[in-house]
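User: Teach me something about this protein's shape.
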Amino acid sequence: MQLLLMLRIVGGSSTTGDNWLDRAVARRHVLGAFALTVVAVTSILAGCAEGGSQSESEVTLLTHDSFVLPDEVLDTFQRDTGMTLKVVKSGDAGQLASTVSLTPGSPKADAVYGIDNTFASRPIDAGALEPYTSPLAAVGAEKYAVPDSNHELTAVDRGDVCLNVDDNWYAEHGQTPPTSLNDLRDPVYARQAALLDPATSSPGMAFLLATIGTFDQEGWQDYWKTVTANGATVVSGWEIAYNQLFTAGEGRGDKPIVVSYASSPAATPGTSALLDSCFGQVEYAGVLKGAANPDGARKLVDFLLSPTVQQALPESMYVYPVQEGTPLPEGWQQSAPAPTTTVSLPPALIAQNREQWLQQWRDAVGR
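Assistant: First, the predicted structure itself:
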C-alpha cells in the first residue's frame, strides 16, 4: 500500500461543501446514521477525577458531526485516565479544519479528531497544532503520517473512496460488470454510473483526486469529458447517488455503478468495490496549540490508537483502523477488503491545486 495517502473547504472554499448528513450517511449507513442529530456540544462521559483542577480532570475533543463510538468504549478512557471526556462537534470535516485553522493558540478544545488528508496542511500551516508522537503510532499509524510534517497530526483511521458496483443487478440482467476505473469511458457503463460533484461532496472530491492521480495531468480532464459526454450522471452528494440512484441502495434506482466506499459492500450484500479506483482518505487526531489540558489531549490521541477504539471503528464509523493487527468485523475480509494500493497525493499538493482542479473539472464537464 502506498504510504503517502492523501480520502472527508476551508476558509470559505466550496471544494467539499457536502453537509454533515452526506458524510455521516456515507460512513455509517448500516447504523442508520440518516437520523443523526447535529449537536453543538455533547458530553460523552460524566464526572471527573477526584482532586485536581477542572482543566486537569476534563479533556475536550473537537470533532466532526459524524463522530460516534459506543459508550462502553468511551467509558474506558475515564477508567484509564480519571478524566471526563467532552465532545464538541463542529460541522463536517472541512468546517472542522477551518475552525482549527482560524483559532491557533486559542482553541475551542484540547484535541481534535476528524481532519483528513485533503485538509491536513491547512491547520498545520496555520500553526494550530502541537507536535506529538504517540508511543502507539509505530504499530501502524505512522505509515499514514502527513508528509513533511512534524507529527502535528496522528492517523486514526482510513476510508477508501472507490467505485461500487451492484453485482446482483448485472447477474440478473445478464450483463458483465465493469472491472476498472477506465471502463467508465464505455458509453454503456457511463450511462449506468452515478458520480459526485467534487465541489459539493467530500467523497466526490476524493474520487476526482483518484482520477487525477490515475491519469496524467491532461488525461484526467479528458477522462471526465468522455465519461460525462457518454451519459454519466453527476449529483451533488453521496446520499442522492447511493440511496436514490444506486440500484442496490434504499431507493432501488437505475444506476448499478456509484461512487462510495470500499467498506460499503459490507453493508450492502451483492455489491463490490473496484479496488483499482480508490483514493485513500485518512482521518487524523492532534493536540491543539494552547490547549487547557495538553496532557489530557495527548492521552486522548493515545486512546484513539488503542486496541479498544481501533476495533470499534469499523462497525461504529465504517472506516478501517490504521493499527496493524486490528481484526476487522466478521465478513469484512470477504465482502469489504481494504485496497492494497490507493491513489496517493500529498496534502500540500492538494491544498495548492484544489481550486484549479475544481475549475478544470467544471470546464471538462461543462458546469
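Now, about its shape. The first strand starts at residue 41 and ends at 43. The chain has two domains: 20-158+280-335, 160-279+346-355. If you'd like, I can walk through any region in more detail.
User: That's plenty for now, thanks!
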